[in-house]
């Protein structure tokens, strides 16, 4: 109250009370102890506020029946003095006593509220510290499922494997009566973008049960023991919501092999993994809680995590085939306005190797391309342009190059195209362009007609020859080489070395594998190689790689020399229109017949020769410099 009174006391002093007769006497005499009267304000019917020249105020009351002038005249105040007074009539305020009291208490309420917020914030900090070991899993109820098996395409075998899980969650009694035990854990394994997370959500949507989602990295913290505490809390929540599903995405972040040194030794991670192992093994058969985990690194998971009783079943999600890609296209084009010329089967045939995430991105890019052109529907041309943007990168039409460089790029790309067309086992040429895309100055785009799970040695030889067609064209036309073939040389060298060391395609070294390579499964990377062969074998490997690369280069050189007219024709057309599609390219090469395709007179894989025997490869091709 002292604070309130202090606030109210700031400003003008408190007015004094005078009677109406004293006011009349002051007006008659013309002098007061407060100096002269400055103004008089009549508030409402009976309140009179007098203000003096020194700033002080006084309050008096009049009879509400008559006016202030009449009452002053009745008290013998001369009319001339009344006329000189400045009297204002002010309407009374609508605020009653309660409102005035509330206004008076407002500062006190604000101060109390501020103290309360400070205390609550301090209490929240304590609660946050206490909940540091709580699980951060996100709970999705199964009342209104947003994803079902109808939204997952291209993974029919995986869906069949998981339908048993759904049936168990819906009717667990049918399995328990027969003494059957549903798998406690299901591990989804596949390349990035194949739909592992989407499939786990579909299982929850089909079963209509709660779905706990958490990432493997959310268990690991700086403080030892926090991850294990979160695991315990997560499984406690799951038991309370049973039946339910626990989905752990990227479980390799916490489930790495213990003590292997892979990824570094980490006490917190290992303790978290130990707690996961204990919780999974401690489940009873009637808890109706199923763990679904996803990873693309199953090779590094701890064996104790993979054993039966924890992750009983492993579901592989591979890259979809042509029918699977068509089904995925139907799912992602659902609800989008498609033009009449859009053929999803043709589009699926044009996208070998793409996974579900790539196809979703392709459809989205096609919609963006159509919207950029102010169209009302998505046409087939928009889909083809989006496919080129996804696979090759956007066109850089503003990239300025000199005429000589443009001519060299045209001969380079034409060399690729002619050699690929003439070799029977190369992929058909889809498009040739000298418009810069991504980091490349020009692109020769070739794609297979069908999905091939395996390749032969002849296909790799033709592939290497086609990749070296650009360099051979530069040598024939300009009698020199450029750095434009640096990526071609890198790819050809990798293929040749893999043929010799990984696939046993060398007649000299025989069908065996050289070196133990630690590869990242489903990611295509390599973390190192351990040599298990001698220096003489290493020298023989280098000779075989050089022989394969040189033979491919010689084939490309021979094809372009024989069909130089076609090389000049394709180059002149590229310089004219910059881009040639498949139909126009086949027309320039003489139609769709394969009769013109180059057939080598001798096999490309030569018989093994002694190391001391002189090489039959011309020095020009065998000693080509390595360009960066």
- Quick one: biggest sheet? 6 strands, mixed
CA-based gyration radius: 43 Å
Strand order of the largest sheet: 6-8-9-10-7-11
Q: Overall pLDDT, averaged?
A: 78
The span between the termini is: 84 Å
Please provide the count of β strands: 16
Helix content: 40-55%
Q: What is the quaternary state of this protein?
A: single chain
Question: How many helices in DSSP terms?
Answer: 23
Shape: elongated
State which percent range the strand residues make up.
5-15%
Structural class: alpha/beta
Low-confidence stretches: 1-11, 125-130, 592-628
Which tags fit this structure?
6-stranded mixed sheet; alpha/beta; elongated; 5-stranded mixed sheet; 628 residues; 23 helices; disordered N terminus; disordered C terminus
Polypeptide structure, described:
The protein has 628 residues and is α/β, with parallel strands linked by helices. The chain is 46% helix and 13% strand. The protein has helices at residues 2-9, 20-29, 68-74, 79-84, 97-130, 156-170, 172-177, 196-207, 226-240, 267-281, 303-306, 322-332, 344-349, 356-372, 380-392, 403-422, 457-467, 469-478, 486-501, 535-562, 564-577, 582-588, 619-622; strands spanning 16-17, 37-43, 47-52, 57-61, 87-90, 138-140, 185-190, 211-215, 244-249, 289-295, 313-317, 429-433, 443-446, 516-520, 525-530, 579-581. A six-stranded mixed beta sheet has the order 6-8-9-10-7-11, with helices on both faces. A five-stranded mixed beta sheet has the order 1-4-3-2-5, covered by helices on one side. β8 (211-215), α9 and β9 form a beta-alpha-beta unit. α6 (156-170) runs parallel beside α8, α16 (403-422) packs across α21 (564-577) and α20 crosses α21. It starts with a helix and ends in a 6-residue tail after the last helix. Mean pLDDT is 78; it is low at 1-11, 125-130 and 592-628.
